[in-house]
């Protein structure tokens, strides 16, 4: 059957949007290979690999990237733990305060980042708390937490309670039931939540810009260097993070498909 | 023991959300009603003058942010709906590939993506520089540091958040419902307008929610792509807090922004039920 003309136009249009969304990525990757002479990195001046060889040559940038990774790992662990427990609570039980809890989760997701950052700064200023690693981790855990709750809850509500009953009938205690039955069945939700938390944390600029004190993360360092010219190492790091993220996502979907096929 | 299980599970999360979400917002409310300065300290005076002063002083930026956010959201809806529609109904077995391609840019940091977009729009950049070299554009042509660049950046950055919820809603539409419409002699246009479109509205609501709020409050696009005439409320709040240390004014502005945005959200949430909105947001 011949495809309808309108459908074909929509098909091209979809590709056009995809190309548009990807074009800055192509530019970023390309200019990581640009043999630029001046501070600005907007015109093509020949191919080089020197930025890859000198990847860690800029101390501040390397340090900012390490900060970002540490903060992302710690806040992901915290948010995943707290979010999974809270997700279990709201997904499985009816209890007093469930409505308030759902409202809090909703508020945490829908509060504009700017307001979240500003209000946390108000708290830290009022409490005279020094800003740095710890305040950034607190903030990142806060905005990731609610997303973990939502992904975990989505798994918990479709969980068959008779599985856990069966485990208990077979003599498993509360902890063993959780470890051997509940946790493995909600694991896809937990893993998705953790990945989301990591991605949100490593990418965050707005909230971090309020609570960082003098500590710089990768996005903050980049914004700080916009005015003076962004070194090509930023492009290279962006390219490597992009490649790693895309690889993990592809591997994840391939293994999910294998599991589904089995 | 069992009766208390949900409370023990929820306790750590409650504490985190309570201490770091609820308390700060209360703290901000209190700061916004203080007067004073950084040197002499701030005193709680419960004076609303911060609000009237801040809104009076920055009404231009507040209105500009709402206009930029609103225009960007409408453009995203118009650009995004056909993409969501085509992927949901016509992409067949390739659906997940197209979704993956749409999400690909998210593997690059938001800040870096915006800057790369700025590279592309630069006056002497590979796009306009080349076109100018060929004589296709006048030498003084520029996009960077204009309203177009900022709104374009907002659309570019948040478009996938519009497409995904609409896609989810369309994906759930039972094809038999559409066939039924055709059986009842609906034209293609009527079937779309009276069957598909209403069924996709929850997705549209969620998409608008997920794009309008961050786009309006975003300081990055205006800072990277805009000029001095494109400052948005997010930039003002950042400057008042971090550069001027004018906490009362900044808090009052943040509250005003949040009030304006949240009033809209809660009307949506009331209409759809909080859990539905959250579910739509999570997918």
UniProtKB/TrEMBL annotation, chain A:
Membrane-spanning intervals of the chain: 12-33, 69-91, 103-125, 137-159, 180-202, 234-254
Keyword ATP-binding carried by entry: no
Tagged with keyword Membrane: yes
CDD domains, sorted: TM_PBP2 (cd06261)
Chief location category: membrane
UniProt keyword annotations, A-Z: Cell membrane, Membrane, Transmembrane, Transmembrane helix, Transport
Membrane topology: Multi-pass membrane protein
UniProt similarity note: Belongs to the binding-protein-dependent transport system permease family. CysTW subfamily.
Organism of this sequence: Acrocarpospora phusangensis
Alphabetical list of Pfam families matching this protein: BPD_transp_1 (PF00528)
Protein name: ABC transporter permease
Residue ranges annotated for the ABC transmembrane type-1 domain, each copy included: 65-252
Gene Ontology CC entries for this record: plasma membrane
GO biological processes: transmembrane transport
From TrEMBL, chain B:
Signal peptide range in chain numbering: none
CDD domains: TM_PBP2
UniProt keyword Manganese present: no
Listed transmembrane segments: 7-29, 66-87, 99-121, 141-170, 191-213, 250-269
Transmembrane helix recorded as keyword: yes
Keywords noted in UniProt: Cell membrane, Membrane, Transmembrane, Transmembrane helix, Transport
GO terms under biological process: transmembrane transport
Family: Belongs to the binding-protein-dependent transport system permease family. CysTW subfamily.
Protein's name according to its UniProt entry: ABC transporter permease
